[in-house]
Amino acid sequence: MNARQVHISKLLSLILRHKPEEFGLALDANGWVGIAELLEACRQRGETFSREELDAVVAQNDKRRFALSPDGQRIRASQGHSVEVDLQLQPVEPPELLYHGTVAKALDSIRRDGLLPGNRQQVHLSADVDTAAKVGQRRGRPVILKVEASRMGRDGLKFYRSENGVWLADRVPTEYIRFPEGGGAT
Q: Mapping DSSP to helix (H, G, I), strand (E, B) and coil, where does residue 44 land?
């Protein structure tokens, strides 16, 4: 994505995941907002971009952060909301292991409390180490935690998978987390 597309993507994340009210918008119960309404609200705030540019951001985003409704008239974030929405995801059986990227300074609280969603609705997990490393890298040198997802599922904790492939859980208790030996980065 070029610099303009990155700017639009960040703006969409702000609106569709965290602060729709700052743009005079309200997401419906499932996180959707009309595209025409979104474009107009952005225009009124001096953030003008076309429907074609929006479509390009949705199509070219490597993380597939956004989804269009089947009729192409609405848009929502695929996951990562700090505002209350119901993405209508159904529980799915997870793989044996999932991964979570973090940084060393977070390990003490994770050892104490497990993985908690913080300001998001759910904990985000990755199916592969590389993706988890990229997530952890955003805040420093990444530490990769292994989550015994299959065992969690067998013990009754639920997993969901967003439209863009991110694994979600309400929380991950400490007993299901494998910390790296020595507690450092991987």
A: helix
- The pTM is what? 0.77
Q: How far apart are CA 82 and CA 119, in angstroms?
A: 5
Cα–Cα distances in angstroms (integers) from residue 29 to residues 33, 38, 85, in the given order: 10, 16, 5
Alpha-carbon distance of 102 to 61, in angstroms, equals 23
Q: Which of 174, 176, 131, 132 is nearest to 153 (CA)?
A: 176
Q: What is the CATH T-level fold of the domain 98-183, as seen in this structure?
A: ADP-ribosylation fold (3.20.170)
Domain boundaries in the chain?
A: 3-77, 98-183
pLDDT tens-digit profile of 108-131? 999 999 999 988 889 999 999 999
CATH class of the domain defined by 3-77: mainly alpha
